[in-house]
Amino acid sequence: MEAKNEKRICLERPAREDLISKLPDALISQILSYLPTKDIVRTSVLSKRWKRVWLLIPGLDLDSYEFPDYNTFVSFVNKFLDFSREQKSCLHKLKLDIHKDHENDQSCATPWIDFVARGNLTHLDVEFGGYALWREFWEMMPVSLYICETLLHLRLYRVLMGNFESVSLPRLKTLCLERNIYPNEASVESLISSCPVLEDLTIVRMNDNVKVLRVYSQSLTSFSVGYNPGDLIRKYNYYSEKVRENSGLVIDAPRLKYLTFNYERSKSKIVRNLSSLVKVNVLSAFDISSVVGCSEQQMAHNFFTGISRVREMIISQNMMERIFSYLSVDSLPQFCNLSYLKGNVCSTSVTFLDVFTKLLESCPNLKSIVLVLTCFTDYTDEMVEMRVWSVPKCLLSSLEFVEIKNEYEADDGVLEVARYFVENSINLKKLVLHLQYSFLKQGNPAILKDLIALPRRSSMCQIEVFNVHNGRALGIF
Asked: What would the DSSP string read from start to end of 354-393?
C-alpha cells in the first residue's frame, strides 16, 4: 500500500524544469567553454538543440593525441571552423597541441590560424610535438597573425615564423616564443618592439637564426630568456662554440621588473635602462665573455652595473663562480637596493667565504641571505681563518635572516659558515640550518651543541635546525 502511495506521489509531482535549456545560445556556449573539450562535445547528445549549440563556444583546447588518429583530428577542426564560418561566430581562445605521426600528415595549422586571426581572437597557443620535433614538419605562421589587433596572449612552440612586412599587435600583453625558427634577427626585434603594451615576454632559444637577440620595449615588466637544459646535451648539439661565436643579448627595457636568465649562453650580454628592476634570477650555465672591442672584464663590469638597482637576486653556482672570478681583480658596483640574495656555491675551500664577504660588501642594505652549499669538505686549519674575516656593513646594520642549505655529506664547514654569521650579525633574527641526516646520525651533536651555545651578537637571534633529507624540524634554539 505504501509503495503504491509513493508511486502515485511521484507521478503527481511536476517534472523539474530545464532552466539551462531556456538560456540563450550565446550564454550556454559561454558556460560550456569552462569545461574540458571532451565534455563539451558530449553535450551534443542531449537534444537536437544541443547538437549544434556547443559549436558556438568561444574557446577550444585541442590535443591531436586525444583523437583516434591525426586525420580524424584534422577533420574535426575543419568541420568546427566551417560551422563557425557559416554561423559568423568566432573563437576568442584557441589552443592547439599538434602531434604529427607520419611524414605524409597534412599541414593544417596555417589556414586554421589564418581564419581565427581574422576574427576577434584574444588567446592563441600553438605547439608542435611528436614527429614535429623535426623541423620538416613545422608549419609557417600566417601574416594575418602579426596584424591581429585583438590578440592579448600568444604562445608559439616549434613553429616557422616567416617574413612579414609589418607588425601590429596593439593589445598583446603576453608573448611566449619557444624553440621557433625566425627568418632573421630583425624579424624578432621588430615583433617585440611592435607590441606597445607587451608586459610579459618569454623566449626559449635554440638554433633559431638569431645571433644577437635584441629586446627593446618601453612597456615590458617581466622577461625570461635562455635555453631548455635538455637541448644543451643532445647528440646534435646546436650550441657549439662555433654557433655561439659573436652571439649576444641586448636588453633595453626601462620598466622591466623581473629578469630571468634560464641557461642563457650568449657570449655577450648588454643591459640598459633597467632602473625599475626588482628581481634577477640566474639559473645555471651563465656566460659573460669578451666580444670584439670589449674585454671580458669590461663586459662583466657593464653587466653588473646594468643590474645594480635590483632588489632580489638569485644566483646559480655558475654565476657565483663568474662573480668570484670578477672579484679577484675588481670590485662590484654597489647594490644599494638589494635586500634578498640567494646563491648556490660549490667550493673545495672555505676561502670562498673570503670572496663571499667581498660580495656582501657591495650589498650594504641586505636583509636576507640564502646559501645553498653543493659541496663542502672537512677542514681543520682553514677554519681558523674565518675568525679574522672582514665584516661587511650589512652584517652590522641590516641583515635579519640567514638560511644555509647543505647538499653535501660533510657539515663541519657549514657550521663554521653559520658561526660566522651568528658571531658578527648585530640585528640577526633567525638563522636556519639544513643539515644532512648522516652528519646528525654520526654522533656529532656536540658540534651542534657548540653552535647553539655560541655567544650571539644579536639578542634576538634564534637558530632553527632541519633535517635536509626529510625537511623535519629538529628544534629551535
From this structure: HHHHHHHTT-TT--EEEEEEEE----SHHHHHGGG----H
